[in-house]
Design brief:
Blueprint: H1 3-12, H2 21-31, H3 37-45, H4 48-58, H5 72-79, H6 81-97, H7 106-126, H8 132-141, H9 144-152, H10 154-165, H11 170-178, H12 182-192, H13 197-204, H14 220-231, H15 244-256, H16 261-282, H17 289-365, H18 375-399, H19 410-436
Helix pairs in contact: 2-3, 2-6, 3-5, 5-6, 6-8, 7-8, 7-14, 7-16, 8-13, 8-14, 9-10, 9-12, 10-11, 12-13, 13-14, 14-15, 17-18, 18-19
């Protein structure tokens, strides 16, 4: 980790290291197990703008209070201390950071951040995570490090962002430039704000690679945020970097969290509608309905093209597999035929050779008389021919143990021919020596 980066962030932007007093008090109450509903209500009530916003949120159909909520105390009693604290923190940080100048499309940024927050809360509920509000807060703040890096290194960040928009891997670009990435920078900022460490740790690790069967409780919330991030459809970048490796990691985390395929599928199907509803209640700008539908159509088209490409690749692969099977079957058939021919020819050659050797022995002993002295030369021709047949058969047996490629290797064929000639020369020499003795 490059500590110089973090020192520069603090030195150049001291305003980043502290939150408004109201949020500081909200965080203190969120971390204090002994705090109660009245403590939180008193803090929020001191801020008229925050009070008005909170009352609008809790009276929205999304939260379904069933009756009109007119005071912050009623809101806290209805939704719970942690839920109200999470909503207050999320909307206030949105208001604060949205004033920072940025070349990042803020509508896309908050659309993605809110989608991850909603997905994280749904995942937390599905696996019975005890504090679902932590998942929502970590989700909505998970990419805040991008805003910090841009605020601190605007020119360099703009160059990196343009490269990422052209399809390069953002995390790798960040690591190469700063020896850190926006996830860890986000964690650093949230630590300065005294956000609970369980939340800051999840933000800092949401791009980590998690091994199969990871069940450490310390990595439970980080995996929830990582899966929510990989499940999210709306990206801050305009390109789709959904690589095979990301898909593999998504599957690993799903299994680690003991979620079924159906549960994740249901989440993905319902996420966009939930994000639109939540954005209107929290007054977070994520774009108009037409813009969201246009983005959804683009995503659908990209998915269609991905499926089409996969089907095309699958068809090509099937053809290659079929051809490979045919070639393998053909080779196996050739091997079987070769072995059968080899057996019969070898037996016949052995019989001829045996009879020839017997005849040669009879001649040497005088049992058979060769009046014209022609039999010796004839026997040598027969023996040479039989030896040649046996050597070729042996090489055929050797060839049947190799892959198909050797049949197309001219050098290998020439080596076989040379090997047979050398072996025949040795056999003939031994045979001549045996006759001489």
């Amino acid at each position: 980790m490059n500590t110089d980066i973090y020192n520069k962030i603090i030195e150049d932007h001291k305003e980043l290291t502290s939150l408004p007093q109201t949020l500081t008090e909200v965080l203190r109450i969120l971390k204090d197990e002994n705090s109660n509903a009245n403590d939180l209500a008193n803090v929020i009530s001191r801020d008229p703008a925050l009070t008005a916003k909170m009352l609008r949120i809790v009276n929205s159909p999304f939260y379904g209070a069933g009756r009109e909520i007119t005071t912050v105390s009623q809101a806290v009693m209805t939704l719970g201390t942690r839920a109200v604290a999470a909503l207050t923190l999320s909307t206030s940080i949105y208001d604060m950071t949205d004033k920072w100048e940025s070349s990042i499309d803020r509508t896309r940024f908050w659309r993605h951040s809110l989608e991850v927050a909603v997905a994280a809360r749904s995942i937390a509920e599905a696996i019975r995570y005890p504090r679902v509000e932590e998942a929502f807060i970590a989700g909505i703040l998970h990419d805040i490090g991008l805003l910090v890096l841009e605020k601190s290194f605007s020119d360099k960040f703009k160059s990196i962002w343009n490269q990422a928009e052209s399809g390069e891997h953002l995390i790798e670009l960040e690591e190469n430039s700063w020896s850190t990435n926006h996830a860890r920078v986000g964690q650093f900022l949230l630590d300065q704000w005294k956000i609970p460490t369980v939340i800051t740790g999840a933000v800092g690790q949401h791009h980590n690679n998690f091994p199969p069967d990871e069940d450490d409780k310390d990595f439970l919330l980080p995996q929830i945020i990582a899966l929510a991030n990989k499940t999210a459809k709306f990206s801050i970048l305009t390109v789709n970097n959904n690589s095979a490796y990301n898909i593999e990691q998504k599957e690993i985390i799903r299994k680690n969290l003991k979620l079924s395929v159906e549960q994740v599928k249901d989440l993905e199907e319902s996420i966009i509608a939930k994000v639109v509803d939540e954005a209107s209640f929290l007054e977070i700008e994520i774009g108009s309905t037409s813009e969201i539908l246009l983005e959804a159509n683009k995503m659908l088209y990209r998915q269609y093209m991905t499926v089409e490409n996969l089907l095309s690749e699958n068809a090509t692969m099937q053809k290659e597999i079929t051809q490979s099977k045919i070639e393998k079957a053909s080779l196996e058939a050739v091997n079987t035929i070769t072995a059968t021919f080899n057996h019969y020819i070898n037996n016949a050659a052995a019989t001829i050779l045996g009879r020839t050797q017997l005849l040669e022995f009879s001649l040497s002993k005088g049992t058979i008389v060769d009046k014209n002295n022609k039999m010796d030369s004839s026997l040598e021709v027969i023996i040479t021919g039989v030896n040649t047949i046996q050597l070729v058969l042996q090489e055929l047996r050797n060839l049947s143990e190799f892959k198909t490629v050797v049949y197309h290797d001219d050098a290998y064929i020439l080596d076989i021919e040379k090997k047979i000639k050398e072996s025949l020369a040795t056999i003939n020499e031994q045979h001549e020596n045996s006759i001489a003795t």
